[in-house]
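Ticket #4471: structure output looks truncated?

Reporter: J.K.
Steps to reproduce: submitted the chain below (348 residues) through the standard prediction queue, then opened the result file.
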Amino acid sequence: MKKVSTLLIMTLICIILAAGCSSKSSSGDKKQEITVYTAIEDAQIPVYLEAFEKAHPEIEVKLVRDSTGIIAAKLLAEKDNPIADVVWGTGITNLMPLDELGLFEPYNPKGIDKILPELKDKADPVHWVGIDAYMATFAVNTVELENKGLPIPKSYEDLLDPKYKGLISMPNPASSGTGFLTVSALIQLMGEDGAYEYLDKLHDNIGIYTHSGSKPAKLAGQGEFPIGISFDYPSFKEKESGAPIEVVFPKEGSGWEMEANTLVKKPEIKEAAKTFLDWAVSREALELVNKNFAVVSIDLGNELPEGYPNNLLEKQLIDNDFQWAAKQRDSILEEWTKRYDSKSEPKE
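Returned output as attached by the reporter:
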């Protein structure tokens, strides 16, 4: 009887220990969750995340996607109780003012030494790092303009011709990084007075200001507003989809912006967040990005895609002062909104 009792006790102990081990194993297998804010285009995200999840199945990404301006506004509103762990692929001129407020944690992702100096913070460790550069283009519906007997505009100056009245759409710079890069580039090219004189005239020809940088290209593809001031990625995507689009790089030069990543400052920073940032600037990730953007933040040795000017880096992209643009951002948006917001589409 004593032997039976001893055996029973030992069996119970083994069951308890096994249950404990099973519980620990189950807990250990639980995915680490990170919240990632991004302004990357919806169509690009699935391919990127599929690659990340394949490389890091132990991490679950909770994604919050919105336009650049909305992402920045969310980060600012949540500054005392941050929700995001990582900001991924969001316009740098939106992030710089938030960085000055101390919202981001310095961190050098793996491979930081390979990042082009123009596309990363000069601090060490960096506060942000770029993944790609995007630039202003016009998406022009050739069929619609031909039906109206109108030529294809080749420059910002051409857009002022009264014959284009009501045919142009452009992103609202208060909600779109593409809109802001366009306005800030015009100010840098023409001076403040010259730029607003230009924008006053352009406003007469604008049919609508959108809250998305890609929407003007889509509207041009649909023929609703046959001239869309947009950026290179959606403009070429519309053309590739079969829409009768010609992608125009304005002869005055293209304003440009970079999509950048940063680590959000929180009381507890997750290692999984750093892992995501390491992956986001890896060669594997940037090769995927390069399928959508001609310029990425490491030299992959690839030629520019068809349709891009050969002098893209040397002449087409303006000498963009990101620090100036970030510091002037609020005043630029205030002035732009006061003058032109009456033609903005309703916010959803």
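Triage note (M.O.): checked the attachment and the full token line is present. Confidence is low (pLDDT under 50) at residues 21-27.
Status: closed, working as intended.
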